[in-house]
Amino acid sequence: MLRVGERVRHEIAALLARNEIIDPLLETVTVTVPEVRMTPDLKLANVYVMPLGGENAEDVVSALNAHAKFIRGRITPALDLKYAPQFRFFVDKTFDEYGRIDAILRSERVQRDLASDDDGED
Known about the structure:
By secondary structure, the protein is α+β, with helices and mostly antiparallel strands. The chain is built from five helices and three strands, in the order αββααβαα. It has a three-stranded mixed sheet with strand order 1-2-3.
């Protein structure tokens, strides 16, 4: 599953880089594909995307979902799988999670706890 997901990720990223999808919104943004999660039967690919800067993320995902059949037709021959997976696009929330965790780690309360641990080790 991981290997196929990574292959799908590379193919979708290459397709988006070539601007083969005719859509006014998609032609104006750069989209990254951080992760693709395949179902165990390899028939469904959940594709997580994020436009550069994070602006209009929901609109970009809607546009990609609208063009999912086109994307499937362009990518499937390169995958050489028994079944052509269906693609569902989602906004990648991991960047938000990283930011939230970083903010917690930098908070005064955590820094105070870390400082008190350092003092106790001497």
